[in-house]
Protein: Site-specific recombinase XerC
Amino acid sequence: MVKKKYLWRHPAGRIYVRLKGRLYRIHAQEGTEDFDREYWEILTGKRMQAKTSWNALIEDYRTSDRWLGLKPRTRQDYDKVMLYLREKIGPRDVKSLTRSDVIAAQKANSHRTRFANYIPQMLVILCEHAIDLGWIANNPAKGVRALKTPQHRKKEHLPWPDWAVDKFRAEASDLPRLIFEIGVGSVQRPGDWVGFRWGDYDGDSLTLRQNKTDKPLVLPCTAELKSALDTAKAALGVIPIAGKPILSKLDGNPMGYRYMSQVMLRERRRLGLEAYDLHALRYRGVQELAWQGCTDDEIAAYSGHATKAMIEKYAGEARQVMRARQAREKRK
Structure:
């Protein structure tokens, strides 16, 4: 065996190649063919991509029924993690992954807890696919504990109070007001608002297939939402084609989530309502349904919530206030 004179071992046990004043880590286990290959690739500047690389695995996974059967929203979340994995370990051999590697990647992203917890989740799925392909025998990503969001970083969505709703409706500009009414009236996730087309509105109801759940819904409009939609439609001057987005930029192009979020943030700042965000509009809608005596099942039929945890939280708060006021009246 040729002696590898450029190796340097970290006190923690990690092995690096010291080359031209820089350190390049070798991820494979010492004494293996993969270790030798990584060493010479670093030394020659030719990091060859293994046939069983993460890049190759991700490409194959994206053609599988595991991927094709996912809901659009789930694909979006997974795509972000797979892009990260491509950038960090794309050319590396899948077989060299260890549990400690998974935990280290998760820890490196602990400043963004949700994304950090998606990393082991995505690696579990990819490793299961690698097992199916015969590349590995075990799944080193399984069983990695999810990180908890630190208390100081937790941010609750404050449901819009009556005075804030009244102020926004009275003083907001036309486009932010339309976005606002879609949020409260449809009781959907903000990511779905930009997907509404004029063909989804029949003058009384909106139709939708949710991005996250792929669930089809018919949403009867509130009086405020119907008025806002009718006003926006009339302002176009012509009957819009069915495929035209209801929420469009000034140049007529479709509005994305980020653009919509910026429009609303500017308006909320202008009106002194920055504390109440987009997601909280959905919770306001849930509370309004609860105030009208709707059951959790009826609210879920409108909002499309897959589980009732959020409904129970925000509808429960609304019912508590309502009952407390009723109790006050009885005390008089």
About this structure: Residues 142 and 238 are 56 Å apart (CA to CA). Residues 309-331 form the longest helix (23 residues). The first strand starts at residue 7 and ends at 9. The chain has a mean pLDDT of 89.
